[in-house]
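Case study.
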Amino acid sequence: MNTRFKETAVKAVLLSFALAAVASVALITVFLVSSGLPAIGKIGLLEFIIGKRWASTAKDPGFGILPFILSSLYAATCSILIGSPIGLLCALYLSKAASKRTRAVISTLVDLLSGIPSVVFGLVGMMVLVPGIKQLFNLSDGSSLLSAIIVLSIMVLPTIVKVSTTALDAVPREYEDSSLALGASQVQTWLGVSIPAARNGIAASLVLGAGRAIGEAMAVMMVSGNAANMPSLFQSVRFLTTAVASEMSYSSGLQRQALFSIALVLYVFIMIMNMALSWLVKRSAS
Amino acid sequence: MKRTAIVIAIIALAACMAFANGQRETRSISTDGSTSMEKVIGALGEAYTQLHSEVGFTYNPTGSGSGIASVKEGRCDIGLSSRALRDSEKAEGLVETPLAYDGIAIIVHPSNSVENLSMQQIAAIYTGEITSWKAVGGPDLPIVLIGREAGSGTRDGFESITGTTDQCLYRQELTSTGDVIASVSQNENAIGYASLASIKSSVKALKVDGIAPSEESVKDGTYAVQRPFMLITKATAKLSQTAQAFFDWALSSQAAGIISSSGVVSAGL
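After joint prediction, the assembly is written out as follows.
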């Protein structure tokens, strides 16, 4: 009796801790929706989402966030396009070709890359990448969408490498053995059998990486120039994240409310990506 | 037995802490607001707590807008704003008292040969009428405009003084004075603006209408690009005795030396 009571009590305590995490998500959702909707109501959903002019403190204010949405999507897509071949081939090497020792060393270094704080990426980007791009392309200023894309491509690498490696590791040995037994070379087996067999996991790694790219603020804020332009490779741009981060500290009134609305839009984007992710994971499991 | 002793010890400790806290509460001054005022308010706070060791002084660097909101909601004693109050804010029962004046320096890369710009030229550059340094007597290079984010006190100050409010075509909108200085120091095409007090030798501060920015030229009003540092209080509620004593001291001649040694010009005397 006593033991049973103890068991129940421990389970209740564990449940309450589990609920703490759920409560945080619920709290953030409620907060974002309740503080993000008023400004959208005042500005008008259509004008907010597809308006091109952002001038939050002007006498005749404009609250169009289309430039931020497009810049975020542009940067996330391009950084995945650049990062995925590098990350995927790195994962393929780690999972299939590397010796145990090499694999341990490279995996540790990749983990290290994911542990570097984003402000450090931003700092290095600001001091090295931005002047470099200015020189290379003969621009008047190197702070641009391109700089942000390059920084993000490096930042998404660890996610892509780690998740893809796990997916490739999980490919059943028999598939590869059969392929080899039929006379295919090792490289043919990796490209023709292992990667297709792990495609759902690899796709999940790309979605996860894209989520990381869309959600990053600090590093891109330091290299993108932060002007609210429509996206163009060599122009200074502002993203959904940096739009919130850069104006929050001095904001007031409708400007502040609109920043919460931007955060809500960002949240919706991340939610859509998470749903895509769980759909992919489910599909790969079945 | 042992457990009871521990519990009693913990309760006693908690009580002590609560008591100590309560005592400090009545003898503290909290300030909140403009990040541009960090240097001057830090120096004032430090000097004041040295004179009155029983007083606790806090400064929360959140930005002018947050500081003003914080006073209004009673979350701090004195708000700090690096811009004058808007009429809407005054209507909400807030009062401003100038503490000091800060010159805003117009900065360029040290290699830039331009030394002087007129107020009209600055306005023309920032609104995009002039796009090459050649037009103002410099090298044949494009001009890259660097400024602060919307809502920043420095940006508000710069744009209202130069008459370019809402018309500046920034290439970069950065979120701190340090970022602006770092960016300008790395690009020979760049022009930016930053608090005079934070200017370093990595950038060159230009003369405006022939007057170099300095403490003297800000004080006598000949250097035109300058803005006020305000202490914000509520008209309706009285400050606590401790906060009022600090407020009076900060505006006295005793504090003027500390204010000017942090690079801005004291408004008091």
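Observations recorded in class. The longest helix of chain B spans residues 2-25. Residues 102-226 of chain B form a domain with the D-Maltodextrin-Binding Protein; domain 2 fold (CATH 3.40.190.10). We will return to this complex in the next lecture.
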